[in-house]
Structure formats: structure tokens, C-alpha cells
Amino acid sequence: MDLQLEHDVALAALNSFGVAARAARLVRVHDAREVRRLVDDAQLGACRKLILGGGSNLLLTRDPDALVVKVEIGGMRVLRDDEQGCIVEAGAGVRWHELVVWTLQQGLPGLENLALIPGTVGAAPVQNIGAYGVELADRFESLDAVDLTTGREVTLDAATCRFGYRDSQFKHALAGRSLITRVRLRLPRPWAPQIGYADLARRFAGGAAPSAQQVFDAVCEIRRAKLPDPAVLGNAGSFFKNPVVNRTIRNEILEEYPEIVSYPLDDGSYKLAAAWMIDACGFKGRALGRAAVDARHALVLVNRGGASGAEIIELAQAVRAAVRDKFGVELEFEPVVV
Ligand code: EPU
Fold it and tell me: Smallest Cα–Cα separation from 252: which of 165, 332, 326?
């Protein structure tokens, strides 16, 4: 079957911010073969491409000047489950939360801390999603991708993906060059609950070790209480990364703001809670036009209805300037800005 090209497609429903933009051309791919066919296509092969998963880590500030490739590759299966470990594989178009739920239903724990993260399986490695003490890199085995210049299919390991904090090679050298088709995850055996993160530690303090289902339920409950649901109020999760600073800078800030929340990292540096700093700048709940800083979680910017990408960026710049003025720290955006 030929590739089905769609013209002048509204993107508001395809990005979790719900920002209105239009794609001049959009093509949906359902397997690696279709991706290769796209690369080989005389017309479409050479044009610039914007790869779209769940659209939950994306801020559109204009109509993309590229062919939008919507990844709709499905399928989930267990590749192995024995004393050596458990490996599951999922298509890039599967919703991440659906994979988490499915693995638990199969009796395969390990992803429960990552419940309710919006977006698709294929987008998960791009920003190395993480929450409640676990990140994708901790569970990653390998992924398959198609090189969009050569059409070649490759399997990439963790070292090639270069995972960092909300970061990977797919945001750098491989951006727009490589389309992820399948992801394989290694679930830890033996399994033990990861409940070190403050919110979870508090919840399970003093009790018996929770089951994976109990951790899953707790994570869902905490997220629902703290983070706005993109289906109700457009957003892309955390809009800023938590900045990492060295010990000297952290101590200077701590002297002036003893309540600041920070976490020590293995290399001696510190991650500062950006939400706390934004909150301290009085930005929580503040609106600028149709964009706002969420009233419950200061790290999340929301679309109050009809906001443009430019309005959201304007608010983000104002937040960034306030944090820079008060704390001398530069905040970095988490979503990809087009
Ligand atoms: N805080 C405030 N004001 C707020 C919100 C939070 O002062 O409005 C304080 C909290 O009291 C807490 C600290 O800031 O002491 C950190 O807050 P939280 O535990 O909610 O985590 P976070 O650092 O803000 C990160 C991730 C989230 C992830 C949570 C849980 C980043 C950029 N964000 O948020 O990921 O769910 O930890 O692990 O690392 C995402 O990336 O989209 C995302 C939601």
C-alpha cells in the first residue's frame, strides 16, 4: 500500500499543550517498512521531518516547516522472562502508560514508578523520562530505529543513546535523523520496590514493603493530585529541568534561602528544585494572557485555553528571568520547541 499523505492537518489534538498549528503535510507510519518506504520516496525522502509521538514534550510556536511523521507503530510482547532477567518490547507508537499497565497485568513489575507519564514508548528514550526515583535509562535494554537519511535499520544500545537527565542523543546528533520504531526494556530481577523518593517514602513509612501494584497506585494518586491532566488543561509536564549546580553555588544560595529544596548527586553537584524557586518568585498560578504557571505545581506551564506557543514561551521567559534575578540560576526548557 502507498503511504497515505494528509494535507493541511490541524495539530491541536496532536500536542498535549493543545496549541493550534497546522501541518502542511502529515504521514502516519505503522511499521519499519513504511518508514523505509518514506525514506526511499522520491518526493518525501529528502524533505525535513518532524517526528511526532504523543506530542507531550513539544511546544509548537508556528506551523512546522517540515513533513510531520506521526509514529503509530504498535505491539507489546515479552521477549524473555527467566532467572537471567525479563525483557519486554513495545512499538514506538504504544502509549507509555499502557505499557506500564500491561507489564503489571502480565505479572512483570519494574515500571510502576513511571506510571501515568504522558507520551509514547518511542518518545520515552528521547528525553529519558523519569519520575519517583526511576528513569528510563535504568530499565533500558536497546531500541530499533530507522536512519532517515540512509533508510538503514539499526539497533542502538544505551551507550549510543547517551542518556542524561531528561536528555539523550536523540535531542542532539540524532535529532530529526533517526526514527525510533521499537524499544526493549529490561525489568529488574529480583524485583524490589523503589520507594526512596520523598513522596513515596512518606507514604510507605513504617509499613511492610509494598507490592508493585501498591507503588503503581501510589504514583498514580500522587501524580493526579499534583499534576494537571493534559486532557483537561493543556500542558507538557515539567516545562523546566531542575538545574544542576556545584556545591559552592548551592551553599551560597542555601545561606540566603535556607528552605530551598536540593538533592545531592553522585558527582558532588546538586540538583535544585526549580518548582521551589519558581514558587518562591511568586509565579505559581500566575497567568500571562492565555498561558499560566499551574496553580498546583510551579514547574508546569498550562494553556488556559487558546494560548499560542508564543504566549507560552513569553511566560517561560518571564519565569526564567525572575529565577535568574533572584537566585542567579539559569533554567533550561524541557520540551522541544519548534
Ligand atoms: N515544590 C514547590 N512548589 C511547587 C511544586 C513543588 O515548592 O509548586 C517543591 C516540592 O515541595 C518538592 C520539590 O519542589 O520539595 C520538588 O517537587 P516534586 O517532588 O514535585 O518534583 P520536581 O523536581 O518538581 C521532578 C520531575 C517530574 C517528576 C517528579 C517526580 C523534572 C524536571 N521533573 O519534578 O517529571 O514527575 O520529579 O519524580 O525533573 C516531567 O519531567 O514532565 C515531570 C513531571
Answer: 326
